Amino acid sequence: MSRAAIQEFLAHLAAERGAATNTLAAYARDLDAAREAVPDLVHADGDALAGLGSEWAHLAPSSLARRCSALRQFYGFLVDEGLRQDDPSDALPRPRTRRPLPRLLTHDQIAALFAVAEEEAQTGKPEAVRMLALLELLYGSGLRATELVSLPLNSVPRDAPLLTLTGKGGKQRMVPVSTRARQALSAWLTKRIVPAKNDKGARFLFPSRTGHISRVRLFQLLRDLAGRAGIAPEAVSPHVLRHAFATHLLEGGADLRVLQTLLGHSDISTTQIYTHVDSARLVELVNAKHPLAGGSGGARR
Q1: Residues in a beta bridge with 52
Q2: Known catalytic residue: 242?
């Protein structure tokens, strides 16, 4: 019965909340893991759920918190659907997690990436022209990797400098596309070739043999570019460029609510991580540049 209830819950997330495929897969993994520890999840009592703390003691706090969150939502669904009268999820462990600050790229590192991408794009090779377009949209518009690789061809702006895209949960939003990015996209459209015998790829801006280029391929392309730009490849990813977009905008005076809209965050608390990033940079600046930063000797007069 637990397996059937989980399937109903996942169907509810898809239909009522518009949960993305990756989100549904993550919920399924977490609930399957819970079912391995507590086979009859639907009828489990508080004692059974409390025991998950020791059962999952090997997990990182963030992973434990994620699994417990999935279970709380699952039991809320069961109560709403009348499949049980009580909600035992209060017995679940509540690990304290500290959200890590995102990795950052400096302005100089961003400039180095673009310098190499622009130089290579001047050769006219399709792969190089595509790389510049991808980079412009990641850093210039703050797109998520999934949003970028799955962009439909008809999303490319004609007159208005805005891009309409579908983000998490099927929510649509509009993001600005800079003049630079529009130029890069125009150049890519003159080189774009849909692989032969692939009708699926025809509708995507960045087609591949199986439809559109994958997130894994995008990740590989960025790391290769980082290596050619003299940057440690492990320091660069699509998500890191999205973080750079947000952080550098905030440094430039962007309003947090505007940033929330641009990033497609449903909750402002998600966007507020960037205020912590900015604060961390300010502290670093004071420690490095303040006259008293050197210790008791300092520059005091």
Answers
A1: none
A2: yes
For residue 144, indicate whether it is catalytic. Answer: yes
227-274: per-residue pLDDT in tens?
999 999 988 999 888 888 877 777 766 666 666 666 666 666 655 566
212 part of the active site: no
Q: Which residues share a beta bridge with 234?
A: none
Residues 111, 43: Cα–Cα separation, whole Å? 57
Name the catalytic one among 43, 72, 265, 281. 265
Decide: 200 and 206 in contact? Cβ < 8 Å.
no
Q: What is the pTM of this model?
A: 0.58
Determine which one of 66, 67, 144, 182 is catalytic: 144
Report whether 180 contacts 162 (CB < 8 A): no
Could you please report the per-residue DSSP string of 245-300? HHHHHHHTT--HHHHHHHHT-SSHHHHTHHHHHHHHHHHHHHHHHSTTTT-SSTT-
Examine the residue annotation and report whether 103 is marked as an active-site residue of this protein.
Answer: no
- Which entry of 72, 168, 200, 223 is annotated as an active-site residue? 168
Q: Decide: 274 and 250 in contact? Cβ < 8 Å.
A: yes
List the structure tokens of 261: 């809209």
CA gap 8, 74 in Å, rounded: 10
Q: Of 72, 200, 239, 281, which is the active-site residue?
A: 239
For residue 94, indicate whether it is catalytic: no
Of 66, 182, 192, 242, the active-site residue reads 242
Calpha distance 9→269 (Å, rounded) = 26
Of 241, 11, 35, 83, nearest to 147 by C-alpha is: 241
Has 217 been annotated as catalytic? no
